[in-house]
């Protein structure tokens, strides 16, 4: 990793947004402002980054005939076939099994082809926890592609996508683990002479009932009402000795329908689990099932992380020391997200008088941070100023409140809407801000941080490349744009910021930017609702944590603002420890330990 760069607050008590992204995440995220209506306000933090579901199928019934499609890729007999791995293969996350390689196949045709790409990126990011991965369009699949991999995930998002029979035949012939998601399972069953006899189950029809709960491993997970119109494809178990229901959905009248079914080496999920994702979502069941393909020998560690958030030069040293003392008393290592420069360009919180304060100018805060380090804290960089220029972006223009690397505004119906990258956006511009932050840490007597927390978990594709070049890992959820992936894995290489989406992780991954990402999926305490985000208390975070226990090798990760009553932190930490999870360092998570 290079550190050479080409140059070209204590948390504000009113810092509303930080949770939003915490989110919004917490909740899964992401939504396309131009493509989907706001999701239910019961999902915390909807910030217009959530992926919608595919269009409703044309019929509840499945097609009865198979339209045979052959692969268009032809390999001359005199040539050696080169599989897709060398051209667009991705290295797995630290700790992934080096002997595992997962092929992620996705739909790409029709007006919603971009959705197929987005869903595939999300599946691939998750697969990286267990293995190397490669993305490939279904229409490009050629006979034998699966033979170069240890497992396969197919994300069927386009009804009757023209899947080459070579892919169908390879899936039917393999004994390797295959996860088939949503559409076109009927093409696979129609291609088989005895699908039910081989796998013990049969795909049946789309169910459009109001199924809002999915039970997996005995834990009830939520399913957003917006997912209902796209349907849930049903299966029937023909042979209980060969097939089993892994997860079931419950509708509004108590009816039970199959959500995930496994027969032999084939696992099937009856919907797209990456749409309308919330903090306690059935997405978590899909995360676990992806892990069983990417690394069938996945470890079963129970780790937890806590990050102390939005610590800037206006922070209260007494509060910082109190947090450090408590965490040390519980043997809890922690990260401290530091913003090195505080800016209030119009005096929003200073009686109209502009104010800038640098970390190097605040010896009491420096001392408190060094005390936190002595108690097990690790300083990470949380932007340079955590705000943009002298404009509201979208709130006040003040450090901690606003985005730094992306533009946003508040819509008339009170949603936070992601607009575009900032006007100056470039790799050099982002590197300049990082270098300015490093300089400030230098002046304050600290080493340059190795981890970066993007303000409000947002940046452009160029920004993410800059972050990757200067840090060992991001502590992040991530913002992605349709149409752009490195290594030719998807899209045309040009990000479309009218179609953005985000994702949270429950364990360390290496995402499509090639960056190691330390997870944070539980969000943070927010005492009041805002922008359609409900208030969030320790009980809510612990409820989400319990939902996350369905993920094998999952990490329960949250963040906390030190200006809040420390009793909230105590409730969360002790609640997580009571669930049998051990707090570890973000550095050990990054290393795959």
From TrEMBL:
Does the keyword Signal feature in the UniProt annotation? Answer: yes
Per the record, the domain of life is Bacteria
The molecule here is called DUF2334 domain-containing protein
Query: Keywords on this record?
Result: Signal
Please list which residues make up the signal peptide: 1-35
InterPro entries documented for this protein: DUF2334, Glyco_hydro/deAcase_b/a-brl
Q: Name one GO biological process term.
A: carbohydrate metabolic process
SUPFAM superfamilies assigned: Glycoside hydrolase/deacetylase
Q: Does the keyword Signal apply?
A: yes
């Amino acid at each position: 990793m290079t550190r050479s760069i080409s140059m070209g607050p204590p948390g504000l008590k009113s810092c509303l947004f930080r949770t939003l992204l915490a989110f919004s995440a917490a909740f899964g995220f992401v939504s396309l402002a131009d493509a989907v209506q706001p999701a239910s306000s019961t999902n915390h933090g909807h910030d217009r980054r959530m992926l919608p579901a595919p269009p409703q199928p044309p019929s509840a019934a499945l097609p009865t005939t198979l339209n045979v499609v052959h692969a268009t890729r032809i390999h001359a007999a005199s040539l050696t076939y080169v599989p897709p791995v060398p051209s667009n293969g991705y290295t797995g996350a630290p700790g992934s099994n080096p002997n595992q390689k997962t092929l992620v196949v996705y739909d790409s045709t029709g007006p919603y082809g971009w959705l197929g790409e987005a869903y595939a990126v999300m599946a691939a990011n998750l697969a990286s926890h267990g293995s190397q991965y490669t993305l490939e369009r279904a229409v490009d699949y050629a006979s034998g592609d699966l033979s170069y991999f240890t497992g396969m995930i197919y994300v069927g998002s386009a009804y009757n996508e023209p899947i080459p029979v070579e892919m169908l035949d390879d899936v039917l012939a393999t004994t390797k683990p295959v996860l088939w998601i949503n559409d076109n399972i009927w093409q696979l069953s129609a291609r088989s002479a005895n699908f039910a006899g081989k796998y013990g189950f049969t795909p049946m029809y789309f169910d459009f009932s109001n199924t809002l709960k999915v039970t997996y491993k005995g834990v009830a997970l939520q399913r957003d009402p917006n997912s209902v119109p796209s349907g849930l494809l049903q299966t029937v178990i023909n042979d209980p000795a060969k097939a089993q229901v892994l997860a079931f959905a419950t509708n509004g009248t108590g009816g039970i329908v199959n959500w995930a079914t496994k027969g032999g080496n084939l696992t099937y999920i009856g919907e797209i689990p990456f749409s309308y994702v919330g903090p306690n979502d059935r997405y978590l069941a899909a995360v676990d099932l992806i892990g069983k393909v990417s690394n069938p020998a996945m470890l079963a560690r129970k780790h937890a992380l806590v990050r102390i958030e939005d610590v800037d030069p206006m922070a209260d040293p007494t509060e910082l020391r109190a947090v450090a003392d408590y965490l040390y008393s519980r043997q809890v290592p922690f990260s401290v997200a530091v913003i090195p420069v505080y800016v209030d360009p119009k005096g929003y919180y200073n009686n109209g008088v502009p104010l800038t304060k640098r970390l190097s100018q605040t010896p009491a805060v420096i001392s408190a941070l060094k005390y936190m380090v002595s108690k097990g804290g690790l300083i990470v960089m949380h932007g340079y100023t955590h705000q943009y220029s002298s404009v509201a972006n979208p709130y006040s223009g003040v450090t901690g409140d606003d985005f730094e690397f992306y533009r946003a505004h508040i819509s008339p119906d009170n949603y936070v809407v992601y607009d575009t990258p900032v006007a100056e956006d470039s790799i050099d511009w982002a590197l300049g801000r990082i270098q300015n932050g490093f300089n400030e840490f230098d002046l304050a007597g600290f080493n340059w941080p190795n981890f970066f927390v993007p303000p409000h978990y947002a940046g452009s594709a160029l920004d993410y490349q800059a972050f990757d070049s200067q840090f060992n890992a991001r502590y992040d959820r991530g913002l992605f744009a349709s149409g752009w992936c490195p290594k030719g894995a998807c899209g045309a290489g040009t990000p479309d910021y009218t179609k953005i989406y985000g994702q949270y992780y429950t364990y360390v991954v290496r995402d499509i930017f090639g960056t190691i990402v330390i997870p944070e999926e539980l969000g943070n305490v927010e005492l009041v609702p805002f922008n359609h985000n409900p208030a969030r208390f320790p009980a809510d975070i612990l409820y989400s944590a319990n939902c996350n226990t369905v993920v094998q090798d999952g990490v329960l990760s949250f963040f906390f603002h030190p200006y809040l009553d420390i009793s909230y932190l105590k409730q969360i930490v002790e609640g997580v420890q009571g669930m049998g999870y051990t707090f570890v360092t973000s550095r050990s998570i990054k290393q795959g330990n």
